Amino acid sequence: MAYRVGKAGLAGLAMSFAAATFCSASAQEEEEGEEAERSPLSMVIFGSMEAGPRKTFLSVGMKRAIGGGLSQSGFRFFVKAGGAQEQTRRHKPHGVTYKAESQALLGYEWRVGDSFLALYAGSDTESEQRIESFGPSFVGTRYGARVQADLWIVPSPGAVIQANGYVSSLNGRYWTRIAPGWQMPAGFYLGPEFEIYRERDYRKLRLGMHLTGLRFLGLEWRLSGGLQSTSDRSSAYYGTLGLHWLR
Length: 247
Prior knowledge:
Number of strands: 12
Distance between the termini: 62 Å
Helix content: 10-25%
Shape: globular
CATH class of the largest domain: Mainly Beta
CATH topology of the largest domain: Porin
Structural class: mainly beta
């Protein structure tokens, strides 16, 4: 009798195991089906904060694929807004200048694997308010046009080259940044960065190091810092914090 009970118990365990395996397989198939039905990633939300000896700049923006996903070549809509607080003059009394800017650009992005090149064109707007000892001394808004390019190349496994730049009709300004990187065991990229900015009566050069692709809290982070030289200051430290959120 005990032998028959043992066989019955083993048969029950076998049936339970088979049922559990079937349920698990069914659940996995349902999850894979749901993932297949999900639309591809079509938008990236980004933000950044820059800090220097005389200026702090914050920005937030969005890049969205038009009629497809970000992993495919296609048209892109790019919008960005930012604000800065900086010293009006180097010597006392410094005064404070507040600036707000925004861009709305339309472009096309070519993708080959993990590499891409994007070209944009659109509007560029900047508002400025200077605060002096006796109240606002200047308030104005300027409108212009901007052409922008973003490049991300993966020349070999474990290496990346970033290059970004724009030209704007506002004060004849232009900016470019080049940053190669090599992948570390933790997954992020580490390397040098070079940045140049210039407008009608001001120029800035930066040379530093960057850490790109650090994943934390569901976001991708970029940290960079180094030395900068401007037309009104020989040398100073700078720091940048950026983030990306794919949706």
